[in-house]
């Protein structure tokens, strides 16, 4: 009587691992995709064709600059210039051609390179004026022209953020978003990152 009972008992023991293994497959297949910082890093890596091979900090700055140009109405082009006048980051004015009426100029000749030269020169001029007038640190410079607007804002490491915008842009909104960029960029623009960005612009 005991032998016949062992046979079904033993078969039940052998089927338990199979039964427990069957539910695991659908559970693993239904497992949700990972979320959090790792998943959010995707858009940063796709900010543009020039970001491939750069560090995560450099890609993040490219992503922030792209968002600044694309999300703020009236911005035509943007340039980040080092304290010694070298171009570190720039947008592509051609990408925003649809925002500009046909009769308006496309911007400085030479695109971002000339914008960087203008921003650097204006930054030096206002810094000298502030020193002569004991005005302290220059926080922002705005030049309102008949066919455009120019904004220059200092970053904590001595670099400058320059924005070329349309004359009818909302200056308060532009300045607000520039301040957001400056606050974020100032924490990551180390000498190593500036060197990396400068090298990437030279190789572009």
Largest sheet: 5 strands, antiparallel
**Large-scale geometry:** globular
Give the rounded overall mean pLDDT: 75
Unreliable spans are 7-49, 94-105
Overall radius of gyration: 28 Å
What proportion of the residues is helical, as a percent range? 40-55%
Termini distance? 86 Å
SSE order in H/E notation? HHHHEEHEEEHH
**Structural class based on helices, strands and sheet pairing:** alpha+beta
Describe this structure in words.
- This protein is of the alpha+beta class and 204 residues long.
- Helices cover 49% and strands 15% of the residues.
- It has 7 helices and 5 strands, in the order ααααββαβββαα.
- It has helices at residues 2-21, 24-29, 37-45, 56-71, 112-132, 171-185, 191-203; strands at residues 75-81, 87-90, 140-145, 148-154, 160-165.
- It has a 5-stranded antiparallel beta sheet, sandwiched between helices.
- Helix 4 (56-71) packs antiparallel against helix 6.
- The chain is globular.
- The N and C termini lie far apart (86 Å).
- The model is unreliable at 7-49 and 94-105 (pLDDT under 50).
Characterize this entry briefly:
The protein has helices at 2-21, 24-29, 37-45, 56-71, 112-132, 171-185, 191-203; strands at residues 75-81, 87-90, 140-145, 148-154, 160-165.
């Amino acid at each position: 009587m005991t032998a016949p009972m062992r046979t079904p008992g033993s078969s039940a023991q052998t089927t338990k691992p199979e039964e427990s293994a069957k539910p695991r497959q659908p559970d693993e297949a239904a497992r949700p995709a990972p979320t959090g910082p790792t998943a959010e890093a995707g858009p940063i890596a796709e900010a543009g064709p020039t970001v491939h091979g750069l560090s995560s900090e450099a890609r993040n700055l490219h992503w922030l600059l792209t968002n600044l140009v694309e999300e703020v109405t009236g911005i035509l082009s943007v340039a980040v210039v080092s304290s010694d006048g070298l171009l570190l980051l720039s947008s592509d004015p051609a990408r925003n051609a649809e925002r500009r009426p046909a009769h308006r100029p496309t911007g400085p000749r030479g695109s971002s390179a000339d914008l960087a030269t203008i921003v650097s020169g204006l930054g030096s001029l206002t810094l000298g004026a502030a020193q002569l007038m004991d005005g302290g640190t220059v926080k922002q410079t705005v030049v309102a022209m008949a066919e455009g607007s120019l904004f220059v804002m200092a970053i904590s490491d001595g670099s400058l953020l320059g924005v070329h915008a349309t004359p009818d842009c909302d200056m308060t909104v532009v300045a607000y978003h520039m301040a957001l960029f400056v606050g974020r960029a100032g924490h990551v623009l180390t000498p190593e990152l500036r060197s990396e960005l400068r090298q990437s612009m030279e190789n572009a």
